Structure formats: C-alpha cells, structure tokens
Amino acid sequence: MDTFERIIYLREQLNRHNYNYYVLNTPEISDKEFDDMMAELIRLEKENPQYNDENSPSVRVGSDLSNNEFEHVRHEYPMLSLANTYSKDEVEEFYIRTKKALNEDFEICCEIKYDGVSISLIYEDGNLRRAITRGDGTFGDDVTANVRTIKSIPLKLRGNYPDRLEMRGEILMPWESFDKLNKEREENEEPLLANPRNAAAGTIKQQSSAIVAKRNLDSYLYYMLGDNLPADTHYDNLEAARQWGFKITDTIKLCRTLQEVFDYIDYWDTERKKLPVATDGIVLKVNSLAQQEELGFTAKTPKWAIAYKFQAEQALTRLNEVTYQVGRTGVITPVANLDPVLLSGTIVKRASLHNSEIIEKLDLHIGDMVYVEKGGEIIPKITSVEMSKRNPDGQKVEFIKVCPECGTPLVRIEGEAAHYCPNETGCAPQIKGKIEHFIMRKAMNIDGLGPETVEDFFDHGLIHNVADLYELTEEKIIGVERIAEKSAAKIIASINKSKEVGFEKVLFALGIKFVGETTAKRITEVLPDIDSIMSASFEQLTAINDVGERIAGSIIKFFRNPDNLDIVNRLRNHGLKMAIETSSEGKTDILKGKSIVISGTFELHSREEYKKIIEDNGGKNVSSISSKTSFILAGEGMGPSKQKKAEELNIPIVNEEEFNKMINI
Ligand code: IVH
What is the dihedral of CA 231, 235, 238, 243, to 10 degrees? Predict the structure, then answer.
C-alpha cells in the first residue's frame, strides 16, 4: 500500500467508525484504536499536503485559524419557520383544516421538535459542501468549517444519493456538554448561558473551529430538499437519509388519525425529559410530498406542518418590587423583582410584566406569591397570583405616571397597551437605545462599537443621535475610557464601512417605531428611496404588503418630526445609501432560454455569484442535469456522476473563463 492508498484507507475506516459511534451509538473499536488511526492520518496528511481533502475526517478536530467573517450566502430555498401552538384544540383545527383542503386520505408524520439552531447542509456528489445558518431566512452565514467538526454530521455520504441535495436540521448542544460548559464559565466568572439553544447558537458562530470541536455539538436532520429526492413521502426520504449516514431521530411516527397524534403528544410530553438533548414540542407534518405541495405555504410557514409546543414548567415565588425600564422607542417595560427561585434548571429573579394591562389583569400586589414560567422566551413571565396566600396589607401595584429616567409625563397611544415616554430626543435611554439599534449587526453592522462604547461616547457628550456617529474622528475618541489609537482607528473604520450598507437596512436602522427588518425590506421594494418614503401618503403606505395603519401612522409621524428630518439629511450628506441600488447595469438577455447547471467550486466568483449572474443575464439556474440542460458551468472538482450524465446526454461543459467570456465579464 503506498502513502496515498493508506490515507484513503484510514479516511474510510475513520468515517465508518465515526458513523458507528456518533450516529448509530454502536462503536466497534476502542477509543484508543480510533485515536491512533486519527493520529496517523493527521501525520500523513501533514507530510503529504498534495493529498488534502476538505472533507477528510481529520477536519473534525477543527483548526485555530480564524474563520474571520462568515460569508453571507443566499438560501436556495428560503428557510421558513413553523406555525406554533400550545393547544391541542389548535392541533385538531390543523387536522380538520388539512383534511378539508385535501379531501382524501393522508398521513401525519409526528416528530420531536428539537430545541437548537437550524442549519442547512448542502451536499454535492455526496460531499458536504456548505453549511448555512438560517440567518434572516433568505441569507444565512456560511459556517461550514465549524459544522465539519460536528461528528454526527456526515462529511461524505454513503450509498445511493442524488448529485445534489440539501438537508435541514437542528444543531444541538446535549445537556451534558451544556452543563459542563456552564460549569467552566462559572469558574471563570463569565456570565452563564441561559439554555442549550443559546449555547449551540453561540458555538456555531465561533471564529475558531477548534473551539467548536471541543464543545461536542450534536445534530438531528429532519427535512430534505432537492430536485432528485429518493421518495415521494417525507418519512421515506428521512429513511433514505438515514441510510446515507445522517442522524435521523427514531422518534418519528406515522399517524393516520387525530387520536394517534394526541397519543404521540402525550407519550413524548413526559418521555422527552429522558432525551440527552433539549426539546420543546412536537412537529406534525403531512407525509405525502404531493399533498404538501397541494397545501403550499403562507409567507412565513408551510401550511402542511404545525409545531405543538409543550407547556413550560411553573414555579411559585414572592413579588418584592416592580421597577420600570425605558426602551429605545420610549416604551416603558415594567419588571417584576422576585425572590430567587429555581425554574427548569435556572434561577429566576426577574420577570417581564410587559405592560400596565397585564399588571391590572393579574391584579398584582406587592408581596404576592406569584406563578412564574418560561415560555419560548428566555425572560420568564408571571402567569397568575396565588390568591390564597395574599397579604391584606400588600399594596396594589400602580403603573407609574412619569418617566423614571427623565421625569416626562408618560403617554398612552389610543388602542395600545404600552405607555411611552414622549421625550424621544431628550431621554437618555431612548437616545442610547436608538444608537444601539442603529449599530446592530442586522442594521448598520458597526461592529467596532458596542453598547458600552455608545454609553461612554454619550456620557462624554460626543454623540446625541445616530448622525453624530459620522462626525466622530479618531482624535475625538482617543482617550475616552482608555480607547487607544488602534481601537480608535478600528471604530472609525467600521463607522465608515457602514456607509456601504444597503438602503433597506438603513431604513430599518433609523429605528422608526414598528418598522422591523422585514417591514423595512417590504417598504423599499415599493418605495425604493428615502424621498418617496418621506413623501408617501397614508394610502400609499398601507397599500404595501405588511404595512398596516399603525405602521403607516408611525412612519408619517417619524418624518414629520424636524429632528428626524435633520438626522436623515445629515446621514445623506455623510454618504449613507438612501436608495435601493437597482443595478439594471450588468443585466442582459444573453442567456435567455438557457437552463444551466452549476457544478464544482470556482475561483473568480462564488457559486452564489454565478447563480445571480445567470439570472441577471436572463438564464435559469437548475440543480440537476437533464436533456433540457443547455450547458454545465463546471468548476474544480465536478463530480464523476455528473460528468458521466453530461457525457451520456451530450451536454456541453463550459469552464469558468469560457462562461465569463460568453457574458463579457
Ligand atoms: S421542520 C419548513 N422538524 O423548529 C419546515 N423543524 O419553529 C421546516 N425544528 O425552523 C422545519 N425540530 O429549526 C422541523 N423535527 C423538526 C424540528 C424542527 C426542531 C425547528 C426548526 C424550525 C423551527 C420552527
């Protein structure tokens, strides 16, 4: 056996043992034997870099090389979420609705709902090519290097898989690893992580994959997408995926009646507590893919699935005081301060009360014994008062009348539950909150700044609003709370870089009340520049998808305020994008009528960029080769099965340079 053959042999063996250990839980060799083989492989690969393979099992140990920024990539299929319910009545409604819509027999596939971070895995010719986080559902972060270290995720598939496929699933931090991590953090006096989901989310975004490798993440895959799926039901697809090496839960059950669904829910409500990973409900999916297609999707969720979430655990404790926080939009949030109590494994001292109506409804008195529970949110809430334990001297909780920060009398908008402090431009937490919102990753992404620096700059009188950020200079900030030259330069550079951020994010960053990320995007699709938004009528605004009267009213009010107009003008003068970039530039019809398959990896542009280039030039990007394929845009490492198919069907193969010449780039 020569060196190359030995490397191939070790990789195959290690892949197989990995699978036996991490997916099947039935190891065939000792840990020592495994480690010895791995050590040999790592040594041989180091000595013979010409044989490197990005999916060698040695990548499981991770690397200390920084991932730097994660590349944003577009999801081929948007990553949607699921409609949620906590009530069995609503499960029944879903069932009846489905039955009515289909008007024929159907099966429901019941699965455990895993509580981790969702991930999309792209395989080409059986090789893991990309792992992408959900992100905003349209674009996610490329976290492939980190995901390669998760041992239950196959790097190479086994058996008879399609050329290209996408598997979606959940990355999880098992309870055991979570407890260990929190113990370490406690020892290092670092803040504890709230739950395994947050821990998994933080881990998957680590810059060093060596750290990820040490955290022992696990995975369950639950959804297959692609053009060449092996079966026409969800269940059979998952069974095929299991054969290819994916970790698929064996808690799946096909149900033919509503009663069977309820029995499944009841069984797992208690049994799930024995599972090694966090779960928060049950997912019900219509099994037949044809029926799924018939049922379709809403804007956000598939109509063929629903998640039933388990009721959270409760604890009883004493209410000591209600304090009030002022948010960036001036909303006053009452917070209950409680006697510390253990709830689902964590100690709870505070609970959100949301607004005055909730306080009224609960009829809260200081000293009351109250039930707290953790819903989907991390912050627990009070659900009721134990009246039998009420102290007759306890004072009724009365909502405050003036802002606790600036003393301005609070206002309440007609028809709304929240109280606001109207002193938008003079109330410190509102000013700071607006700036913090503005710099957020989802907004202007000024990553050199954080909430503490914003606070320091504000306290030093350097910034009063978001436009002031662009008037900061290195000289002005050096020395503020020990900021040295190097970090000053970094801060100013990241502020300047934010001028490249797209207009839809700028609009979101302005912090207009009720205008969230998606709404901002929708608005810019119809009104593509700031001037048309500023001059839009109420009717024009409410005609936009997702924009109701409340949002329209808020937008109009925002742009009536001279302070805001001044800020927008200053931002414009500083060069921020105030219009969507419609690059009709670069768009042609050159590829009109052409169906193009992309295969392999490229040097000059990324795969995603090529997809866009194809679309911009009138072509259609398809994922699998058929007789209708016009040509294949092939990069490095196009798979042998694709090559064969292309030859059989006589489909031309075009390389990167030829393609670029074709469309003159
Ligand atoms: S199916 C289009 N199945 O729950 C439907 N999701 O609340 C794709 N999740 O985004 C999702 N376990 O992150 C599905 N067995 C399961 C799941 C599951 C956990 C997560 C997933 C999803 C979220 C929706």
Answer: -80
| Ligand 1 centroid from CA 48, angstroms | 42
Cα torsion at 508, 144, 306, 110 (round to 10°)? -170
Q: Whose CA is nearest to atom 15 of ligand 1?
A: 113
Domain 595-662, what fold? Rossmann fold (3.40.50)
Protein residue closest via CA to atom 18 of ligand 1: 113
Token reading at 263: 């029995």
Looking at residue 377, what is its pLDDT? 45
Phi, psi of 74 (to 5 degrees): -80, 135
Burial class (CB in 10 A: 0-12, 13-18, 19+), 482: exposed
DSSP conformation class of 230: S
Contact 314, 382 (CB under 8 A): no
**Active-site residues: which are they?**
113
* Span 556-611, pLDDT tens digits: 999 999 999 999 999 999 999 999 986 556 678 889 889 999 888 888 777 777 88
- Domain 3-61, CATH: 1.10.287.610
Q: Are 424 and 330 in contact (CB under 8 A)?
A: yes
Q: Tell me how crowded residue 97 is: count the other CB atoms within 10 A of its CB.
A: 14
212-248 tens-digit pLDDT: 998 999 999 999 999 989 999 999 999 999 999 999 9
| SS3 letters across 534-573 | HCCCHHHHHCCCCCCHHHHHHHHHHHHCHHHHHHHHHHHH
Q: Enter the CATH code of domain 72-309.
A: 3.30.470.30
Q: Which of 120, 136, 168, 170 to mutate to test the pocket of ligand 1 (most atoms within 8 A of CB)?
A: 170
Rg of the chain over CA atoms, in angstroms?
28
Domain ranges of the chain: 3-61, 72-309, 314-389, 428-573, 595-662
Answer whether 491 contacts ligand 1 (Cβ < 6 A). no
pTM above 0.70, yes or no: no
Q: Is 80 in the pocket of ligand 1 (CB under 6 A)?
A: yes
Q: Are strands 139-141 and 253-255 parallel, antiparallel or unpaired?
A: unpaired
Q: Which amino acid is it at 481? A: E
Burial of 643 (0-12, 13-18, 19+ CB in 10 A): middle
Task: Using alpha carbons, select from 343, 344, 346 the residue that is nearest to residue 317.
Answer: 343
CA of 343 to the centre of ligand 1 (A): 25
Q: Tell me if 181 CB under 6 Å of ligand 1.
A: no
Question: Considering the domain 428-573 in this protein, what is its CATH number?
Answer: 1.10.150.20
DSSP string, 167-225: EEEEEE--HHHHHHHHHHHHHTTPPPPSSHHHHHHHHHT-S-HHHHHHT--EEEEEEEE
Q: How far is the CA of 435 from the centre of ligand 1 (A)?
A: 34
- Any idea what DSSP says for residue 624? S
294 CA distance to ligand 1 centroid (A)?
A: 20
Quickly state the pLDDT bin for 156 (edges 50, 70, 90). Answer: very high
Helix (H, G, I), strand (E, B) or coil at 267: helix
DSSP three-state, residue 329: coil
pLDDT, tens digit, 9 for 90 and up, residues 54-67: 889 988 877 766 56
User: Does the beta carbon of 220 sit less than 6 angstroms from any atom of ligand 1?
Assistant: no
Distance CA 511, CA 466 (A): 10
What CATH topology corresponds to 314-389?
OB fold (Dihydrolipoamide Acetyltransferase, E2P) (2.40.50)
Q: Indicate whether residue 438 lines ligand 1 (CB < 6 A).
A: no
